[in-house]
Amino acid sequence: MQEKGTISIHTENIFPIIKKFLYSDTEIFLRELVSNAIDATQKIKRLSSLGQYNGELGDLRVEVSFDEKAKTITISDNGLGMTAEEIKKYINQIAFSGATEFVEKFKEAKDANEIIGRFGLGFYSAFMVADRVEIETLSYQEGAEPAHWTCDGSTEFEISEGSLAERGTEITLHINKDSEEFLSQQRLQEILDKYCKFLPVPIKFGTKTETEDDGEDEEGKPKYKTIEVDNIINDTNPIWTKAPADLKDEDYLNFYKQLYPFSEDPLFWIHLNVDYPFNLTGVLYFPKLKNDFEIQRNKIKLFSRQVFITDEVKDIVPEFLMLLHGVIDSPDIPLNVSRSFLQADSSVKKINSYITKKVADKLAELFKADRKAYEEKWTDIGLFVKYGMVSEEKFYDKAKDFVLLSNTKNENFTLSEYKDKVTPEQTDKDGQLVYIYTNDPAKQDAFIQSANKKGYDILLMNSPIDNHFIGQLEQKLEKTSFKRVDADVADKLIKKEDALEHVLTEEQATKVKGIFDKAINKPAYKVELESLNPDELPVTVTMDEFMRRMKEMAAMGGGMGFYGSMPDNYKVIVNGNHKLISRILNEENEEVQSALSKQAFDLALLSQGLLTGAELTEFVNRSVNLI
């Protein structure tokens, strides 16, 4: 049997196009060919179970090998095999219409992935790395004859009598000069570990040495011997394919260490398992996030029938869930580009909603089952929950019942609990509830102490997402606003009816303002006189809450660039009721007046960490001279 022909693609030559546009992702050739071999192996197993194949299955496996000297890579299986006619049907005829339009469309393409996945060209990815490809195959069908197919990367092929004596397929790639990097044990192992580590059929790649017991020596001590065994690179039954009832915590933790060998143990996990209205399995882990979530992304691995596809799952998993680790596996996620890129359709949206619900349900369950344990984990999961509430409306609706607000006394409250706690003391004269918070307790300690003296509770809001979270709560919570504890003096944070009277006359107030303006002499600092409690500091420096918040969002890249470019402006609040102000007014020496005013101002800056460098040195020297 010998036959020559032309591959039916109705165009002169598709292979240069494949090579050109898939060059940047050449390693996927091995994934595609191994996946095809797995499919063929599983199909023969299925036919056997249905009674449509009565022969011996044998040891079903896929084998990958290479010959550096001959410059070949071979992928073999003992699956279905093919007849010569099936080769013509499945290999020689690329199954899509309008091939001429295809070539025209993609000859200027920049995205290699547009080609292979959309048009089912997985086998042809071999030509990205090979000058010539050979197929040896023998079909499972009774009386089938072995067939041999070869193609040199043109549209010309040749089919002849094959040499296989047993059922299956063997594909040999004659590697081109530009792809000789793949003729390496380490490089091939790396690709197999990346894409094929959890495929459902054993994959052999060479051999490895193991040590086993070899009885005892003459003195009765144990002996060991080294043996050569098959190097099976994959776990054919990973935990996400098993029922949760059959797994222990140890199994989940061991799998996590297998995926992320250098990570701390996760806090907890969710086992996904649904078969209607879509198929989805997987395990999602909650890592210890602390306050840094940028480095956590792209840690969820997407599989399709246990074949690794990508770790870029933003189209399937909601943005905030990108902070999780783990795996998801679904044959229902539509893929293109050699199974690498996702199409956002109804199935993806349903999966997205399902995962969001499962995560919210798990957190609600943990909160209700053991609140103390939940609070102990809050430092790690708080950022995640807040990020989810800010970015996903449906998640907010569920999370509002288990999100916690923490104060500077290390107490935790739900939203409703905290409202009940602070309503009596922190409602202003207009009925507005004011939540006071700090993002740096050490730096803002003086402000915190002043607020505490008035009976105010201070929330700790120091995660990267808290600026956005605060903004969201102000929109969601009725008649509620947030103020940072250093946004104003304690007497002015919450406007009450019982404002203190000014002890200074209008003339005295004008004089004091002039003294401080002259002593400070900085346009960015605007002096204002207030009638405050005499026990408060003589001078306090604050920044407007709105302006400061906008500038912080701009610094985080929150789309507030206009505010980020604006200069810092501060308010210098002089406490007209403080005894130091009376002393300054009564001081006849203008130099002493100026020195005292400047000293009070610098003390205010120092208490907030705003006095640095040469100004700090000058302050210290001046303080020594005043002693």
Automatic annotation (TrEMBL):
Keywords: ATP-binding, Chaperone, Cytoplasm, Nucleotide-binding, Stress response. Residues 24-179 form the Histidine kinase/HSP90-like ATPase domain. It holds the Pfam family HATPase_c_3. ATP binds at residues 32, 36, 77, 82, 97-98, 169, 339. One of its GO terms (molecular function) is ATP binding. Belongs to the heat shock protein 90 family. This is Chaperone protein HtpG. It comes from Mucilaginibacter xinganensis.
